[in-house]
Amino acid sequence: MTLTDPRAFLTSLFEAAVHAADPYAAIRAHLPERPRGRTVVIGAGKAASQMAAAFERLWDGALEGLVVARHGPIEPCQRITVLQAAHPVPDEAGLQASDALLKRVEGLSEDDLVVALISGGGSALLPAPPPGLTLADEIAVNKALLASGAPISAMNLVRKHVSRIKGGRLAAACAPARVVSLIVSDVPGDNPAFVASGPTVPSTSSAAEALAIIAEYGMQLPAAVMAHLKTEVAGAPDPADPVFARNEVHVIASARVSLEAAAQKAEELGVLAVILSDALEGEARDIGRMHAAIAREVRERNRPFARPVVILSGGETTVTISNDRYGKGGRNSELLLSLALDIDGTAGIHALAADTDGIDGSENNAGAFADGTTAARIRAAGGDPRAFLGCHDAWSAFSLADSLFVPGPTGTNVNDFRAMLVTGD
To answer: What is the pLDDT of residue 276?
Structure first.
């Protein structure tokens, strides 16, 4: 088989993956029963406005509510207020939004229903420092976490213990109302307690575990934060607390489902698809090299998969900022730049790495495309791809190569999407 337009092929797989995580279809399959009392919708995340708009269309009855989305384009809602805040570093708007959410769930009764629409990105969108700490403290925590190289599960564990809203605290504030959480997972393993740091899902983590993570990754946090983590106030609500007894949690979309949809699309187009994993973690550049090695093995030796084949994977890699020199981009573009260097000069390999929310890191691209000519094209345009990788500036590298992937915000978020097409021609 000859694929004349590899970028179009890879884009079609990304689109299939995103479509599989469409909020409307996912929420429709998990609508709760109507309550005797009020229906209050709350939520936060990169997909918050899209989820809220879908719920409005699907709900046959009165409702009210408030969700928090990222600054930028949003899906308009008629009955649910959409506030906006900053991501990945919290801002004052996020602090005000967190306070508004907590106020919105005051005074509920046991006859009321709270529907929590939670997606990835909610951790940054809901800053709510506990007494004695400030927004500046929480910003410092977020910046340290983002630069640490810690996996998302470890980052969100720390966040749970420096908050008035995370770690199940938002659900506890809804009591005695029943809370039904509908969650779009962007974390490897799909543990709902880690998505957006679990504002409506309590977990068994402890402040001592948070301190251990901080020490393991050598994070430098404000003294006030470290002192807070040594107090009883830092402890998260116990999942066995009767306040959570009537609550339900449903993961309604995930990387696994999206990768399976992409694989189905590839096979409809006549290309064998294999899924490595939906939960790959690790340093982005290292995972990029691993993917490159697999692609080269297939290309050169026709193993472990026969050509033509598209190799799919998901999960969430990390980027460790080792110095003050860093540029533009995110984990997907950094992963792909590392891959591009390792397939430099190799024909028949085409790759896409992108964030399913449509935004990779600091810029407006979801990720990028790469093939065996990418590194050479960066050099031809006057850049040094290895130097770009060294200073975490993959966006600039792919911009020179005209290889950025810019689909715009997708309205969902089920982690990272990677596809490598290895052809036989």
So the answer is: 97
User: In 87-134, which residue ranges form alpha helices assigned H by DSSP?
Assistant: 92-104, 122-125
Q: Is residue 343 part of a domain?
A: yes
Has residue 408 been placed in a domain? yes
| Other beta carbons less than 10 A from residue 25's beta carbon | 13
Phi-psi bin for 98: left (phi > 0), alpha (psi -120 to 50), beta?
A: alpha
**pLDDT tens digit sequence for 327-372:** 898 999 999 999 999 999 999 999 999 999 999 987 899 999 999 9
Q: Output phi, psi for 32, to 5 deg.
A: -80, 170
Q: Are residues 175 and 37 both part of a single domain?
A: yes
Angle, vertex CA 309, rays to CA 308 and CA 315, nearest 5: 160
The range of the structural domain enclosing residue 262 comes to 6-17+256-422
* Cα(145)–Cα(195) distance, integer angstroms: 16
Alpha helices by DSSP H, 75-134: 92-104, 122-125
Final residue of a domain: which of 223, 253, 283?
253
Residues in the chain predicted with pLDDT less than 50, given as ranges, are 1-2
In a domain, 1, yes or no: no
Residues 210 and 280 in one domain: no
Alpha-carbon distances of 382 from 9, 174, 329, 373, 417, rounded to whole Å: 29, 57, 19, 15, 29
